[in-house]
Specification:
This protein is an all-alpha fold. It has one domain. Helix 4 packs antiparallel against helix 10 and helix 5 packs parallel to helix 10.
């Protein structure tokens, strides 16, 4: 009798344990399934895989630019007088700002490939502005210390804000082009119609659906156009940093300049390759707009 009771008790404990395990496992599965960030991350990965596959070796343009950003600073030899020489101080600071542009290049591309066109423009805008700051300090080296000291106080920041205006002058062809795209990127980051309305304009969205689509890279043409444009702008930024730092690299610059020229040619070839797709999408949007 005692043995039978022990067996019944053991069986009951086992059943309760198994039920608890299944309930816990089920709640964990439900908890995981309901975590929106995990579902979003899975969709982002699909977008990333598609972008990489669709672009193919066009992606290598990004690798070329990252390498150019990474190696230019290594070629420079700065005098040991930055404490007293504004020109040296500005050159050292600009070498570091170049790495910020490189960072933004990679992050903007990843953001775009994950499906976020608008957000990628914010990353691009930061790179454009950083390059413009560097160009201003290269032309007016004393402003480098104003930039560095901007975080000391509210007064120092106000001095910085007033000093760094008109960053994209018309008399500088490279900066003028960057400035035109900077303005477009600025619209994308603001909560105006330029930065918000397109989330409600998904071509597959039903009028009765009150939600929005978090992704806004809806066509392959949009993906390619944005990527190609980003590459073209960073090529210009690299040319700006070339002129800012060339004096400190001397003849060590020659292989780097040659590699940059090769990257520019590769870009022109890929731009030509993708242009029919981009033009076709432009015409499609015009037709859609005229029928609206």
């Amino acid at each position: 009798m005692r043995v039978r009771k022990v067996l019944w008790f053991s069986a009951a404990v086992g059943l309760v344990g198994y039920a608890t395990y299944r309930a816990h496992r089920g709640s964990r599965k439900m908890e995981t399934a309901e975590r929106s960030v995990l579902r979003l991350a899975a969709e982002e990965q699909k977008n990333l895989d598609h972008a990489m596959a669709f672009l193919g070796d066009t992606y290598d343009l990004l690798t070329d630019l990252e390498r150019l950003y990474d190696t230019l600073r290594q070629l420079c030899r700065l005098p040991n007088d930055a404490d007293n020489n504004d020109t040296t101080f500005a050159a050292g600071l600009n070498g570091n700002l170049m790495f910020i542009c490189r960072r933004q290049l990679t992050l903007a591309t990843l953001t775009l490939f994950r499906g976020y066109w608008n957000d990628s423009q914010i990353q691009l805008r930061k790179a454009l502005e950083t390059c413009a700051f560097a160009a201003r300090m290269g032309k007016h080296p004393h402003m480098a210390r104003i930039w560095v000291q901007a975080g000391i106080s509210d007064e120092a920041f106000e001095k910085f804000r007033k000093a760094f205006t008109k960053l994209f002058p018309d008399d500088d062809p490279q900066l003028k082009i960057l400035g035109e795209h900077y303005d477009a990127c600025s619209k994308a980051m603001h909560s105006s119609i330029y930065g918000v309305a397109h989330y409600f304009a998904h071509p597959r969205r039903k009028p009765t659906n009150t939600s929005i689509d978090v992704f806004d890279v809806w066509t392959n043409a949009k993906l390619v156009e944005t990527f190609i444009t980003s590459i073209s702008l960073h090529l210009i930024m690299l040319r700006v940093f070339e002129r800012l730092l060339a004096a400190y690299a001397a003849n060590r610059m020659e292989p780097w300049i040659s590699e940059l020229g090769t990257a520019e040619q590769r870009f022109r070839d890929k731009h030509k390759h993708w242009q029919p797709l981009i033009l076709a999408e432009t015409e499609r949007l015009k037709d859609a707009g005229s029928k609206a």
